[in-house]
Amino acid sequence: xxxxxxxxxxxxxxxxxxxxxxxxxxxxxxxxxxxxxxxxxxxxxxxxxxxxxxxxxxxxxxxxxxxxxxxxxxxxxxxxxxxxxxxxxxxxxxxxxxxxxxxxxxxxxxxxxxxxxxxxxxxxxxxxxxxxxxxxxxxxxxxxxxxxxxxxxxxxxxxxxxxxxxxxxxxxxxxxxxxxxxxxxxxxxxxxxxxxxxxxxxxxxxxxxxxxxxxxxxxxxxxxxxxxxxxxxxxxxxxxxxxxxxxxxxxx
Length: 252
Description:
Structural class: alpha+beta
CATH class of the largest domain: Alpha Beta
Number of helices: 6
Distance between the termini: 87 Å
Strand content: 5-15%
CATH architecture of the largest domain: 2-Layer Sandwich
Largest sheet: 4 strands, mixed
Oligomer: single chain
């Protein structure tokens, strides 16, 4: 087996700059991280909190983290392996366990900030849409969801942990599995008009493609017919000339 010669020069390796360690290990998406931790300059030293959810084979980790120059600071954390003391013995990595872990973290953060009495959350489980409204004293605690490298598909377990965090975070329900907000008449009509518009555009494009194909086929057929007529005309002319020559050559 022949070995290929290294094409990179000495200057390449002298100027090579390695990436961050967690990028080399495939653990951190720094493009997403920089957008999660950047804070507006007019907010000075106000911490920007992230709601970090991570899954392992046997556990779920939920944390509230803020970034600083010295490093990330964890405000509070909750784990799925703590759930057995509250009665949940098995299934510590499923959607329900993610919900319970998020609930445990939410209550801890509110109690730590002395906001648990002011924001009790959704006490009665009615299944209706619920969002936190600011009170007269303190505004609700806010954090940004940090999913890491997880694909944010609809119904992912990470949104199970987020669903219960709605007790103190205002956000959207779009990625919650099995949830659909009630539409009023205007939204319903708008959705119908949007579908009709897309369908009409599809038909117009399809009609254009059909006409284009028909024109192409007819052009090809006409060209083939003209070629055939030209060939037949040439053969007829040759046959007539040859016949005339033969007739002239015959003895009278």
